[in-house]
Amino acid sequence: MKNLKWLVISMFVLFLVACSNESDEEETEVERVAPVEVAEVTEGDLEVTRTYLARTMPNQTTPVIPPVAGELEEIEVDNGEEVEEEDLLATVTSVENGREFEIEAQADGVISGLNAKEGGMVSNSDPLLTILDLDTITLDLQVTNEQLALFEDLEELNVSFEKTEDAKSYQATVENIANTAGETGLFSITLTLDNEEAGVRAGVVAHVAVPEKVYTDSLLVPTTSLVEENEQTFVYLVNEDETVSKVEITVEEMQSDITAITSEELAAGDQIVISGQLTLADESKISIIEEDQS
C-alpha cells in the first residue's frame, strides 16, 4: 500500500513537471515571434546623379553712366531696390554750366554697385550704378573634357540652392556648352533659370544635379531592408505562413532611401522586412506591425 502511495505521488510530480515544461515551451515559442515592419519590392528606374557647383549671375547688367561730370545732388534709390525703366535714379549738377540733369533707369531690374554719396562728385565715364536683370538668372558650370559627355543631349537640369537632401529644386535650361576650354583647361556650360519662384540673388552658389547613370527596370527596395553579413547582402522575404526567408541579393546602386538590386528569388510585389530584421534568422516567425500601430 505504501509503495502504491509513493507511485501515485511520483506520477503526480511527473505530471506537474511535464505541464511546467509544456508551458515553458509555449512561452518560448511566443517569445520567438519577432515584431517587424515590411515594405513592398517595386520595379522601376533608379537615377544616379552627380552634383556640380555653379554661381548665379544676372541675365543682363545695365551700367548707368551720368551724362555729365558734376555734383551728385540727389539719390533716389538704394542698393537692392527694384526699379522700372524710366524711374528717376539721381540728379547731377554739371560742373561746366551748373545745369541739372536727371538720371533715369534704362531697364527694369535691381540696383547694385551704388557707392556714391549725395554731395560727392561723379564722372561721366564711370558707371554711377548698375541695374541687374534678375528675372532670369544665368548659371555657369566649369567641367573637364571627360565630364562633357554627361551633358550631351540634356535640355534641362535640376538646380537647388541648399545642400540638404530635401532642398527644393528648380528646372534650369541648358543654353550653351562650350566647344573650347578656357584658360583653366575647363569647359563652360551655361544654364538659365526663371527666377520668379526661386527669387535668388546674384553670386549665390547653386547645386546642379546631373544624371550620371540610370538603372532601368530594376528591382527597388528600401535601403533599410538590407542586411550585410560576411561581405554578402541579404533581405528577409515574408512568407505566407508569417515566417521569413533569408534571400541573398546583389546591390547595383545604393542610395540613402532606395537601392537597386538583382535577385532570382525576389519579384515586384514581394513583401520584405524593413525594420526588426537584425534579430531574425532564416524561417523565423514574425508579427507584422501595421503602419497605424507603429
Automatic annotation (TrEMBL):
SUPFAM superfamilies: Single hybrid motif. PROSITE patterns: PROKAR_LIPOPROTEIN. Residues 218-276 form the Multidrug resistance protein MdtA-like C-terminal permuted SH3 domain. One of its GO terms (cellular component) is efflux pump complex. InterPro entries: Biotin_lipoyl (IPR000089), MdtA-like_C (IPR058627), RND_pump_MFP (IPR006143), Single_hybrid_motif (IPR011053). Residues 67-131 form the Lipoyl-binding domain. Residues 1-22 form the signal peptide. GO terms for molecular function: efflux transmembrane transporter activity. Keywords: Signal. Belongs to the membrane fusion protein (MFP) (TC 8.A.1) family. PANTHER family: MULTIDRUG RESISTANCE PROTEIN MDTA (PTHR30469). NCBIfam families: RND_mfp (TIGR01730). This is RND family efflux transporter MFP subunit. It comes from Saliterribacillus persicus.
